[in-house]
Amino acid sequence: MIAKAGDQKNAGPAKLVSAALKAANVDLKDEAAVQRFIKQINDNGGIDSLYDDALPAEADDTGIPDDLTDLLAQPQQMAAVATTYDPDPDQDYLRDAHHSVSEGWREAKAIKTHALAVETGLRLWLQRQEYNISKGWESIDLIIAVVDFMDVLYAQNLVMPSQWSVSVFNEIGHWFRNEQSADDYQKMQPVIAGIVGVLRTTEILTKKQAGQLPAAFNGEPIPVIDKPKKVTGKVMSMKQARKLLKNKKRRR
């Protein structure tokens, strides 16, 4: 096991990308530099091209390379790196069953949803402990599960993540319970909660969506998310307040 762990051929894609970024001295805060580097990887054949040159990067006790976790706080660079993890680079998802253009399906929206799904899957993998994702999930399998879920939601319901609703999640949850095994359904529940959590963190979903969608998928009572209380009476603007304060000082 120790010998295999030291062999770069057995390194996962996360370690390879992290090591390649580090070896190339790419500044993770430089969006343009990261974009150019990822494009070069993709032009050279994607992740497979790194197995001959890259060395596994050091990782913390979660098994996640430190360099890659640094990208979580840098959205543009994270999106660029995520493209190397796309499980469907040939865009076969565009040819899967979906509504017609006349019914509202748009290729551009499908592509945008897919790209976000790949990034969401990668983010969820990197933060899997925070979202209680089972250790039984391999990185590529988790990313595929996230991507398939989000692709299908758009293809069949014509909703991008920001448009996800309780009714849509009730429907997809009902399908899982009736068409999938109990084990697969239970395995998917924390993944759905993780997807929603990641999209809330990246401000794609609202607080209300984040609080209600997992419950809808699980067939549970939908929690009531408190709305901000309306201020009654006369509301004073900042401009009015400053003017009032200024006049008050003059009177003194």
- Pick out the low-confidence regions: 1-11, 51-63
- Radius of gyration over all CA atoms, rounded: 23 Å
**Nearest-integer average pLDDT:** 80
Strand content: under 5%
| Biggest beta sheet summary | none
Helix content: 55-70%
The overall strand count is 0
State the shape: globular
Alpha carbon gap, first and last residue: 80 Å
* SSE order: HHHHHHHHHHH
Task: Walk me through the structure.
The protein has eleven helices and no strands. It has helices at 2-5, 13-23, 31-43, 66-69, 75-82, 107-126, 139-157, 166-179, 182-201, 207-218, 238-251. Helix 5 crosses helix 6 (107-126) and helix 9 packs antiparallel against helix 10 (207-218). The chain is globular. The protein starts with a helix and ends with a helix.
Summarize the structure.
With 252 residues, this protein is an all-alpha fold.
Keywords for this structure?
single chain; about 250 residues; mainly alpha; 11 helices; disordered N terminus
Write the topology of this structure.
Elements: H1 2-5, H2 13-23, H3 31-43, H4 66-69, H5 75-82, H6 107-126, H7 139-157, H8 166-179, H9 182-201, H10 207-218, H11 238-251
Helix pairs in contact: 3-5, 5-6, 6-7, 6-9, 8-10, 9-10
